[in-house]
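Need a sequence for this fold. Nothing fancy.
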């Protein structure tokens, strides 16, 4: 689950950097955004960030949201419901797990006003962009200040990453953002989905490949406003396959089925137990008549698979979700063998 604090309204960053990496030093100085990580951090700062990360992870594992709230920056403490829900949803996975802290990132945003688009290039970059040890963070509407991103690997029954955004207040590192997410889906990690995407691509099943690439990227990125060498490579491989007749980048697409038109708003892969399913969401004015909505869902699923038969090779089931204007939805799952 992703929880955004006041500083975390950032856009996804997973595109190739190209020559911008070469201009890192001059660009950073010009716009007042710097990043330190690994050996660039002095020992005292690194220890303080690692200790803060462990402290917050222990509180999350205990479900102690009251203490977490007290240790948050004021804007996050004032609207803490999202973090409370994230802690509740992930407590079982975090409880009893062994936590390993990755090298933290120290971000400094200078200036007098919030930065509309703060971009931090961290670590060593090559002439082609990112390297194995680099990272890029892009955060929108970031107030000036000293921040840190602390990413931890929690090994338990279902491995998770727990990522914290911290802001320095005096001598303390306060909680400014909380992200917890599994690193597996359907029993597989991001590298498995990446390899499967390449296999689908080689077979000409570009839509299957697209959804598997997206799942790989999501599993390999601890937070949505971070990119790495791996996510950049996934972008380069996936972008030419972006489907034109399915929704992406927030754009909706119309699909005709059985005399009506469905406004599709999103389509994405999801891990369910040991299966990979495909979810399709669409707009509907009303879901109160469950029998009618069920029939609409079935009609949509059958039309979608008939239009894109490659989905039979990529997914164990299709899930259609009719979403009304209030955001409530009604879902129907059909296993692939039942779609005639």
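Here you go.
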């Amino acid at each position: 689950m992703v929880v955004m604090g006041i500083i975390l309204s950032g856009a996804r960053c997973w595109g190739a950097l190209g020559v911008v990496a070469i201009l890192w030093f001059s660009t950073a100085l010009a716009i007042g955004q710097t990043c330190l990580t690994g050996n660039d951090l002095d020992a005292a700062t690194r220890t303080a960030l690692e200790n803060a990360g462990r402290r917050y992870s222990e509180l999350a594992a205990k479900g102690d949201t009251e203490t977490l709230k007290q240790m948050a920056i004021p804007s996050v403490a004032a609207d803490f419901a999202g973090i409370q829900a994230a802690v509740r949803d992930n407590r079982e996975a975090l409880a009893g797990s062994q936590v390993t802290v990755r090298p933290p990132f120290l971000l400094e945003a200078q200036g007098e006003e919030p930065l509309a688009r703060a971009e931090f290039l961290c670590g060593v970059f090559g002439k082609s962009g990112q390297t194995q040890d680099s990272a890029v963070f892009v955060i929108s509407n970031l107030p000036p200040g000293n921040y840190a991103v602390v990413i931890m690997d929690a090994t338990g029954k279902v491995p998770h990453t727990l990522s914290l955004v911290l802001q320095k207040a005096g001598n303390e590192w306060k909680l400014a953002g909380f992200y917890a997410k599994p690193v597996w889906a359907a029993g597989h990690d991001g590298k498995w989905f990446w390899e499967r995407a390449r296999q689908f691509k080689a077979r000409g099943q570009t839509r299957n490949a697209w959804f598997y690439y997206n799942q790989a990227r999501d599993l390999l990125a601890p937070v949505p406003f971070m990119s790495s060498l791996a996510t950049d490579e996934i972008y380069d491989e996936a972008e030419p396959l972006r489907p034109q007749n399915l929704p992406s980048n927030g754009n909706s697409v119309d699909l005709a089925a059985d005399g009506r038109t469905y406004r599709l708003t999103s389509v994405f892969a999801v891990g369910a137990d040991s299966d990979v399913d495909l979810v399709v969401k669409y707009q509907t004015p009303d879901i109160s008549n469950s029998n009618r909505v069920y029939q609409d869902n079935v009609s949509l699923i059958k039309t979608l698979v008939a239009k894109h038969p490659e989905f039979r090779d990529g997914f164990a089931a299709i899930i259609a979700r009719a979403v009304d204007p209030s955001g409530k939805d009604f879902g129907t799952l059909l296993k692939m063998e039942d779609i005639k």
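For context: Residues 2-185 form one domain.
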